[in-house]
Amino acid sequence: MRQIIALGGGGFSMEPDNPLLDLYILKQAKKVKPKICFIPTASGDSDNYISRYYNFFNQQHCEPSHLSLFKPPKRDLGSFILEKDIVYVGGGNTKNLLALWKEWDLDGILRKAWEQGVILAGVSAGSICWFEEGVTDSYGDELEPIECLGFLKGSNCPHYDGEIERRPAYHKLIKSKKIQPGIATDDGVAIHYKEQGIIKIVSSRPNAKAYSVSLESEIIETELQTVFLGS
């Protein structure tokens, strides 16, 4: 079963005191102690980001590891990734992530992992990367479309409520047909895909939502059913 969990924002890096989304991800592996691998390429393999990952996941029932392309654990990255249950991709610069992954053939390795049942997850750049297209600030101060891996159809816009310019930029790009319609996610929202279809949308915040954004004569924004993971 091919699975992807795409976070618009949140998780250990943005909500250190709110573990709901990360616990949801771990639970999907359906193992007592799943092996989870963090890929922080988009942040330039930030030491601080990696430390925050281990600070959280070392306290959970799992076996955490990470993959640095600047200090690779071994030459055979395929065997390293394919033995994991979950791959969790961090945020940062999506363009640099895609360029480095292509250079190392990590895009191909991750596709193989996905097809073999490894759960792919990620936040922000780690969400955008799985779609055909995404809205990114990778190029500088303006939000622009970027072509991504295409594991999932359509486009993706994270931080929909977290950054004031995100919603209008996404609408403008779709309306001008610079990017295809797709899914927008607030911070604190995760969309769970199985076989390229949405099976569940969950949130770590009571009012956080996901939206389908399409174009007819005008932009059509449809709120999607979201389940709050808290009490």
Fold and architecture overview:
- It contains seven helices and 14 strands.
- It starts with a strand and ends with a strand.
- It is globular, with a radius of gyration of 16 Å.
- The protein has an eight-stranded mixed beta sheet, with helices on both faces.
- The protein is of the alpha/beta class and 231 residues long.
- It has one domain: Rossmann fold (3-Layer(aba) Sandwich).
- 43% of the residues are buried.
- It is 26% helix and 30% strand.
Name some characteristics of this structure.
8-stranded mixed sheet, 231 residues, globular, single chain, 6-stranded mixed sheet, alpha/beta, Rossmann fold, 14 strands
Shape: globular
**CATH fold-level assignment:** Rossmann fold
How many strands? 14
Specify the helix fraction band: 25-40%
Runs in which pLDDT lies below 50 for 5 or more consecutive residues are none
Mean pLDDT across every amino acid position: 96
**Structural class from helices and strands?**
alpha/beta
**Helix count?**
7
Whole-angstrom Rg: 16 Å
Report the top-level CATH class.
Answer: Alpha Beta
Spell out the helices and strands N to C: EHEHEHEHHEHEEEHEEEEEE
**CATH superfamily grouping:** Class I glutamine amidotransferase (GATase) domain
* Strand arrangement across the biggest beta sheet: 3-2-4-5-1-10-11-14
The CATH architecture would be 3-Layer(aba) Sandwich
Fraction in beta strands: 25-35%
Query: How far apart lie the N and C ends?
Result: 30 Å
List the domain count as a whole number: 1
The largest β sheet comes out as: 8 strands, mixed
